[in-house]
Write a structure and sequence with these properties.
The chain is α+β, with helices and mostly antiparallel strands. The chain has 2 domains: 64 residues, Winged helix-like DNA-binding domain superfamily/Winged helix DNA-binding domain (Arc Repressor Mutant, subunit A, Orthogonal Bundle); 199 residues, GAF domain (Beta-Lactamase, 2-Layer Sandwich). It is 46% helix and 16% strand. The protein is built from 11 helices and 9 strands. It has a 6-stranded antiparallel sheet. A 3-stranded antiparallel sheet has the order 1-3-2. A hairpin with a 5-residue loop joins β2 and β3. α3 packs across α4.
């Protein structure tokens, strides 16, 4: 092989590789989705078949697949289709996480500086929680806490996840967890959906949650919910304490209130406007004799 051919061959291989790795079914499905627009929110199979040059039977199969996944839905219970909520969820959840990060990062950095504790913003993605922003403590003890942006943990087994699901009804929880028993990670993990629901109702009534080694041994957290303009919980702000229990002196210094204030401020930046009335009382500190 000559030097010129040696230079050309890899490029040719790369071109063939790009073509070979394309998945026709996926490509066709995505092309169908891009045909919908504000000017044409409703389309039927014959029209999509004509536009895309795809056999009508293939279009029907693709439409049924996209409908089963929630990316399309029937319009007027007819053969017409429109975009489903799954398409909106893909876009809005991503944009929401960006907005949360941009607006919330200065707040958790200030919370970190005020408390000396590593602070995070956490969102829910299905049955997982995802850490989307982090303000790392400068204290050496936190170097052993390996929770970074992008870390995923099971929602039902973590305090963060339980706070994130505080808006859920029992029926919504059962839809998310249809299995008869929940996977246990520690003795504190709820066994059933009913136990999980009772746990999250307690957090909802308090307006925050405190966990002492409930998911990871030697790690305690304080978490408070963040709401958007619709009033729904979209995130939590949390601080991490690298100890199996939270020192009463730390609580006495107003840790819970500081976390709640940061969460309230981020909610305001997301255009949440709560009704009148004071925040729920702080029964955790009251039980410790701290006012």
């Amino acid at each position: 092989m000559t030097a010129d051919l040696a230079r050309v061959a890899p490029e040719a291989d790369e071109d063939r590789s790009d073509t070979n790795y394309r998945v026709p079914g996926l490509e066709r499905g995505l092309r169908i989705l891009t045909e919908f627009s504000p000017r044409e929110p409703v389309l039927d199979a014959p029209e999509l078949s004509r536009r895309l040059g795809i056999p009508r039977t293939t279009v029907f199969r693709l439409l049924q697949t996209l409908e089963s996944l929630g990316f399309l839905e029937r319009a007027d219970r007819d053969r017409n289709y429109r975009l489903g909520v799954a398409v909106l969820r893909l876009g809005f959840e991503y944009l929401s996480s960006l907005e949360l990060t941009d607006l919330g990062l200065p707040l958790i950095e200030a919370l970190r500086d005020e408390t000396g504790l590593t602070s995070h913003i956490v969102i829910r993605d299905g049955r997982d929680i995802v850490f989307v922003a982090k303000a790392q403590s400068h204290a050496p003890i936190f170097s052993s806490v390996k929770v970074n942006v992008g870390t995923r943990l099971p929602a039902h087994a973590t305090t963060h996840g339980q706070v994130l699901m505080s808006d859920f009804t029992l029926d919504e929880l059962r839809a998310l967890y249809p299995e008869p028993a929940l996977e246990r990670f520690t003795p504190q993990t709820p066994d059933t959906v009913e136990e999980l629901f009772a746990r999250i109702r307690e957090d909802a009534e308090r307006g925050y949650a405190v966990s002492e080694s409930s998911f990871e041994r030697g790690i305690s957290v304080v978490s408070a919910p963040v709401r958007n303009d619709t009033g729904r919980i979209v995130a939590v702000i949390t601080t991490t304490i690298p100890h199996p229990a939270i020192d009463a002196q730390l609580l006495g210094g107003g840790l819970i209130d500081k976390v709640r204030r940061a969460a309230t401020e981020l909610s305001k930046r997301l255009n949440y406007r709560p009704g009148s009335g004071a925040q729920p009382a702080n029964p955790y500190m009251k039980a410790l004799g701290i006012r």
